[in-house]
Amino acid sequence: MGAQTQAGGRRERKKAQTRKTIADTALRLFLERGYDNVGVRDVAQEADVATATLFAHFPSKEALVFDQDGEQEEMLLAVVRERPEGVSVPQALRGWFHEMLGEARREPDLERFHALVEGTPALREYSARMWLRHEQALARAIADDAGLDAPDTACRLVARTALETIPSIRDLDDAAGVVDDTFAFIEAGWAAARARRG
User: Fold this and answer.
1) 24 Cβ partners below 8 Å, 6+ apart?
2) First to last CA, the chain
3) Cα 72 to Cα 84: distance, rounded to the nearest angstrom
4) What are the chain's domains?
5) Residue 3 half-sphere exposure toward CB, CA atoms < 13 A
6) pLDDT tens-digit profile of 161-188?
7) How far is Cα 158 from Cα 190, in angstroms, rounded to an integer?
8) Least confident range of 27-31, 51-55, 64-68, 140-144
9) Is residue 175 within 8 Å of 169, Cβ to Cβ?
């Protein structure tokens, strides 16, 4: 049993490393040459994997750019589900946004990444669909936390307003202040909605 567990762990680590290598290679090539000038076969060849292996990890060319899509959503939902006692949903989300800002400042290629996405229609469209999925999942998690069968207007507004903050803070010097102001607004609305529910 122990040997099987170790073997399974090695397999998972190898899969994760292969996935990371493919994604890192794809982003590097896209930034160097432009998204439309790089094909999936180019990425596979550069990453030294078969094209079938690439598609086993990423269902589309666009997905190569957003390799942390699933992890981002899981982190976002964990903010709601695993927040400390006495911390409201908006307070927990505000803390997560501040953490994200801190990490973003340490990413050397972040501006080039955003420029790549904004300058490529296929990536803009994929990104919009991705964030809509995250918004819907976040609204469901907030509803679950509030004991509701489905997201109501307040749950959807908290999720939408929170995630719509992301594009608006990319180019601002006072991004932290924008986050605080936005979430003060969200907190007031959420508290009023909870009071109305009783």
Assistant:
1) none
2) 52
3) 20
4) 2-63 (1.10.10.60), 69-197 (1.10.357)
5) 0
6) 999 888 767 666 788 888 999 999 999 9
7) 7
8) 64-68
9) yes
